[in-house]
Write a structure and sequence with these properties.
Blueprint: H1 8-24, E1 30-34, E2 49-54, H2 61-64, E3 69-73, E4 86-92, H3 101-111, E5 112-123, H4 127-131, H5 142-151, E6 155-162, H6 165-186, H7 193-201, H8 211-227, E7 237-243
Parallel strand pairs: 1-2, 1-4, 2-3, 4-5
Antiparallel strand pairs: 5-7, 6-7
Length: 244
């Protein structure tokens, strides 16, 4: 897909990461992006070296790859990397897709150096509404999240809700329309992430193919972000900063 569609909850997450990453990620860090997706956060991390790991290889990896930016297929529950290799770890809305999420958190703890930080985001229980409960294995309460990270011996530095009512509402409608657009194609078999994105870019997200549509989309996201500073409830995501 030529132009990346950004949902309202992800827009809010990116805004928060823009504040948090420079604060906790050292400029000379070797960064692990656990569940990197297409690799977009390789462009946001201030570290000196970056490794993105995902269960599914992506076409976009080639676009972002540099001498200091690399990607590989891997399972977060059993990483190949040695103990205490990374200076910083990031995971953006990934752990909810890992059924044995506790194993993944412990693995990230293992490969992080002592006193290093791990920043990640995951969906709250309210996010279940937008996804029909089908998108991932976990939707977290604050208590569940606290128990999981403490079981891996991490120290919680920050735990906050990200986004609000309007981000959740907007994403709910977008997701429902997206499911409706993809349903006929699922009849003929399972669709890869890349194929799903291409279909949505020509249907529900067709406006992203035009400059006016992208500008309007970003304007709406900024309005929602501003409104949710007032209507700060039913937040779709949590952002957590942990220290080893």
């Amino acid at each position: 897909m030529k132009h990346r569609f950004i949902s309202a909850p992800r827009f809010d997450v990116d805004k928060e990461l823009g504040k948090v990453l420079p604060r906790f990620c050292p400029k000379n860090a070797y960064v692990l992006d656990a569940g990197c997706g297409i690799g977009i956060y390789s462009q946001m991390c201030p570290g000196k070296k970056y490794l993105g790991i995902d269960i599914q290889p992506r076409e976009e990896w080639g676009k972002y790859s540099k001498t200091w930016i690399s990607f590989k297929k891997g399972d977060l529950r059993k990483l190949d990397e040695r103990n205490e290799l990374f200076d910083f770890a990031l995971s953006v809305n990934c752990l909810e897709h890992v059924k044995e999420d506790k194993k993944a958190i412990r693995e990230i703890y293992r490969v992080l150096k002592k006193s290093s930080y791990f920043v990640f985001t995951v969906p709250t229980r309210w996010y279940w509404i937008a996804q029909f409960g089908r998108h991932c294995y976990h939707h977290y309460s604050k208590k569940q999240l606290t128990q999981r990270v403490k079981s891996a011996d991490f120290k919680i530095i920050m735990l906050k809700r990200v986004g609000g009512f309007f981000a959740l509402l907007c994403h709910t409608f977008d997701t429902w329309f997206s499911y409706a657009a993809l349903l006929p194609f699922h009849v003929f078999g399972t669709l890869s992430s890349n194929k799903q994105q291409k279909i949505l870019n020509n249907t529900v997200h067709f406006h992203m193919n035009f400059s006016w549509g992208r500008k309007l989309h970003m304007l709406i996201l900024k309005i929602i972000w501003g409104l949710d500073k007032i209507f700060y409830f039913l937040s779709p995501n949590y952002l957590i900063v942990l220290k080893k």
